[in-house]
Amino acid sequence: MKKSMNIAIAILAVTLGGGAAIGAVTVVGKSSARLCYEAAERHESDVAALAACDAALAGTEALSASDITASHVNRGIVRMRGSDLTGAIADFDAAIARDHDQAEAYLNKGLALMRQESSWHAARAEFDQAIAKGTRKPALAHFGRGIVEEHIGNVRAAYADYRRALELDPEWAEPARELARFKLMAKG
């Protein structure tokens, strides 16, 4: 299972690096906060993307409380894509401190924690919160939690999460691939 776990983590890393945005939070208008959101959506992690996010949080623009929270989530995504996990987690924590119901902050914090080998249990707690608070990416939350569950030895829970991820997003191939590795046995 360890080799398969490494494959699952690699799949999640690809998901983080490309494909759909992780869990960016929409910001409307023409502010730096909007540019930060667009950078997170376009999978950017360069200096310009981070500068847009920093400008949004510099306090020079009149942003709503929700736009400030969203900018923390979006800057966290940009930082995570640039492998600044410490900065990303700090941004997700700042978003959660501002809005305890910001599901995408919990989802993204879980993804960042997963990339730190010693943080598996903490990542699971964040995925739990993302699901409970209604993340817009529940399949990703279940998939990530499945990887964590498998890594810490909860194979039944991992199977259930991979299965739920596939139910939620039948077009996403990775959960089906992970499920194919499992062999179901009758109790008895």
From TrEMBL:
Keyword check for Membrane: no
InterPro entries xref list: TPR-like_helical_dom_sf, TPR_rpt, Ycf3
Gene3D superfamilies: Tetratricopeptide repeat domain (1.25.40.10)
GO cellular component terms, semicolon-separated: cell outer membrane
Keywords: Repeat, TPR repeat
TPR repeat locations: 139-172
First and last residue of the signal peptide: none
Transmembrane segments: none
Record-linked PANTHER family: TETRATRICOPEPTIDE REPEAT PROTEIN 6, UDP-N-ACETYLGLUCOSAMINE--PEPTIDE N-ACETYLGLUCOSAMINYLTRANSFERASE SPINDLY-RELATED
Protein name as it appears in the record: Uncharacterized protein
Species this chain originates from: Sphingomonas oleivorans
